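Worked example 3 (structure in, sequence out).
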């Protein structure tokens, strides 16, 4: 389970970096609108990397003392936290794309 969080953390860091790089290459003026979404994804990744490392050492210490407890609340918090951040980043990208599309429509509208 711990390695799943590590892989997910690396995946989020990669997704955030790729999102920022793609928009930076495609439209450099529009890229700052996407940076908050990329930062949320990278933050998700950093959180999961720290969470997995902390969970690993907690489990190892508990096993040494023969008092291993399944802590579902930490896992639920991690899943909820990353879900909210991911949804927020999707909303940020969607709104930025909508504003970009509407600004293109108004600039392409026939002038009277």
């Amino acid at each position: 389970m711990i390695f799943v969080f590590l892989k997910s953390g690396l995946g989020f860091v990669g997704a955030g970096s790729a999102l920022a790089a793609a928009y930076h290459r495609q439209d450099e003026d529009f890229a700052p609108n996407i940076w908050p979404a990329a930062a949320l994804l990278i933050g998700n990744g950093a959180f999961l990397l720290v969470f997995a490392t902390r969970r690993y050492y907690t489990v190892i210490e508990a096993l040494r003392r023969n008092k291993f407890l399944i802590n579902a609340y930490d896992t639920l918090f991690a899943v909820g936290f990353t879900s909210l951040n991911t949804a927020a980043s999707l909303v940020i990208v969607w709104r930025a794309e909508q504003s970009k599309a509407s600004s293109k429509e108004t600039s392409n509208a026939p002038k009277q």
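Notes: Helices lie at 2-26, 35-64, 72-108. The chain has a mean pLDDT of 88.
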